Amino acid sequence: MSRRVVVTGMGAITPIGLSVADFWQSAKEGKTGFTDITKFDTEGYKCHVAAEVNGFDPKNYMDPKSAKRMELFSQYAIAAAKEAIEDAGLDMTKEDPYMVGTAIGSGIGSLQSMEREILKLNDKGPSRVSPLFVPVTITNIAAGNVAIQFGLKGKSINVVTACASGTHNIGEAYRTIQYGDADVMVAGGAEACVCPVGVAGFTALTALSTEPDPTKCSLPFDKNRSGFILGEGAGIVILEELEHAKARGAKIYAEVGGYGCSSDAYHITATAEDGQSAARAISNAIKDSGVDPNEITYINAHGTATHLNDLCETRALKIVFGDHAKDLKINSTKSMIGHLLGAAGAVEFVTCVKTIQDGFIHATVGYTTPDEELDLDYCKEPVQMEVPYAVSNSFGFGGHNASLLVKKYS
To answer: Of 163, 217, 352, 379, which is the active-site residue?
Structure first.
C-alpha cells in the first residue's frame, strides 16, 4: 500500500515577497510585481516589462563564498529551501540523510552565464572561459546545491519539463515518498531568466506580452490578453511521509492527494487545441486522489495569458468537469508574479496550500473583459470560502502536462 504524503514546510522567493508570508499577504492584497526591466537596458527590445525579484541578498541565506560560486537561480533555490527546512523544523542531525532527498527543477538554468561566457569566448578566446561555466549553468545544479548545503544524501533529481518543471518535481517527490524511497523530499523549482537573451528569445517566439503598461501586461483569461511576462524566483516545499511527520511532531499544512501527467505529442510550443491531453493530466491527478470531481471547487490554473493556453485550459476543465466546470473558482497566480517558468508550478503549489489553509482564493488580478469561449469563473474578485481540495495545473513547451491535487489534511 502506498504511503500518505503531507506538506510540512514551505519557502518562496517571488517578485511580490521574499518569504511565503510576504508573498501570500501580497497575493491576498492583489499586489503585482510588474515593473520596467532594471537588469539590463531594454532599448531596441519590444518587451520592456518583467516581474523581477527585488531586495534579494544571497548573503542572507548562505556564506558569501558559496554565493559567488552560484548563479541566481541556484541562490533562489537555496534561499527558498532554507525557509522551507526551517519552517518544517527539520533537524538533519536527527534524520537518516539517505532518506531525505531533493527534487528541484529549472526549465533553463543560467542564461546569464551562457551570455557572459560566450562573450568572453568571442572577445578573448577559449582560454578565458570560466572553469565553473558548465557546473554553474546546468539545470540540475540547483538541486545539487541544495543537497550540498543542507546535507541531503537521498534521491536527488531534476525533472526538466519547461514550464511544468516545478509541478513535475513535486509530483515525482510525492511518488518517491509514496513508495518508500525517501521519508522526506525537498521539492520545487527555481528560475532566473530576466536577461537579454531570455527576453529576446521569448519575444521572438511571440510568447511575451509587449504591453508597456505594467497594469495591463499580464491578463490571464481576459479577452485583451497579449502573452506572458517573465518572472523569476523559487518555490520549495517539504514533503514528508505522514507517520514520519507525526513521529517528530511536525505541523502539517496539507496533504498531497494526487498527481497526473500526460503529453500533447502535438507541437513544440503550442498547446493541443482540443484540450484533451491537458484534461487527461487533470483527470489522472483526480483519479489518483480518489476524490469525486464534483467535490472539487478550486483550480489554480496554468493561466499564462497567451491566447491559446488559456483557451485550451478552459476546454480541458470543461472536458474533466462537464457542467460542474461552471461552479469552479479558477485563478491565475501569474496575474501577479508573471511566469516563473520552471519555478511557476512550485510557487503555485504553495499558493494552493495557503488557499486551503486560509479559505481564501486570490483574484486573477487585471481580469475584466470576458472572452467568448472563456466563460468560466476566473475570479475577478477574491473569494473567501472553504477549500477542501485544490488542483494546480502546469503545461510546458514540448507538450508536457502535469497536475497536482492538494487536500486539507485530516
So the answer is: 163
